[in-house]
Amino acid sequence: MKKFTIPCNFGSEKHPFAVYVGSYSCKGRHPLEFQARWLSEMRSGAVPSEVMESFHKLLVIAEENAVSFEELCMYALGQANEEKPSQEQTSTNIPTAAVPFPIENHVEVLLDAAALRQCFDSSFNLLLITMAEEGQVWQISLIVRAEKTAELKTKIEAREIGLSELDHYGTIQFKKAAKSAQISEDERRALREKFVAENCS
Questions:
Q1: 110, 66: one domain
Q2: What 3-state class would DSSP assign to 146?
């Protein structure tokens, strides 16, 4: 569980108030609902509406991308504080817009060199890449030489190269912005079949 100190409203004044965020599992409820209610009933205070909205947005992002709500809050609030270092520590800036989120870059082989032998004279792999850049999740399929696959996988997952550099390593088959880092097996199968139909006939 993580503690965040936020400026809350007490009449015409603002004072710091600590809220706590942990693994959240109450579907359909705001993550600060009970703490905000306690603050209102017991201290006659109010969590600012923009703060409530921001925590709700972070929860939605965490659920859609299957990441820890607690870690996402730490990441988003840390980013916000880095951008505004002049603010007091008790005035944590909660972002109200879309935030970057800690999606791990991931590379998997959709079709290996053996499966693609019918398509190419040399050894190639078809990769499926999931990566986060500028607060957006991207899904990319890339055809790359087999001997370069391990090196590329290491660099992508270590965030040593970005989206714009992928075409230096191979040929991008498709690229799309996605709402989630999750890719279903049906989507994987469709990508394999589409690639074979377009390149191996």
A1: no
A2: helix
The answer to whether position 92 is within a domain reads no
CA distance 124 to 147: 8
Q: Are residues 56 and 111 in the same domain?
A: no
CA 42 – CA 198 distance, rounded (Å): 66
> Under a CB-based contact definition with an 8 Å cutoff, are residues 133 and 174 in contact?
no
Residue 79, pLDDT score: 52
119: three-class secondary structure by DSSP: coil
Q: What domain range includes position 113?
A: 106-199
Class of residue 95 by CB neighbours under 10 A (exposed 0-12, middle 13-18, buried 19+): middle
Largest CA distance in the chain: 74
- Residue type (1 letter), 35: Q
Contact between residue 52 and residue 30 where contact means Cβ atoms under 8 Å apart: yes
How many domains, the chain? 2
- Looking at the fold, whether 156 and 122 belong to one and the same domain comes out as yes
Amino acid at site 198 = E
Report how far residue 108's alpha carbon sits from residue 154's, in angstroms, rounded to the nearest whole number: 11
pLDDT digits (tens, 9 = 90+) for 90-126: 444 444 334 444 567 888 998 888 888 878 778 999 9
pLDDT value at residue 82: 47
Domain edge (last residue) among 83, 117, 140: 83
Model confidence pLDDT, tens digit, residues 45-104:
999 999 998 888 888 888 887 778 888 888 777 654 444 444 444 444 444 334 444 567
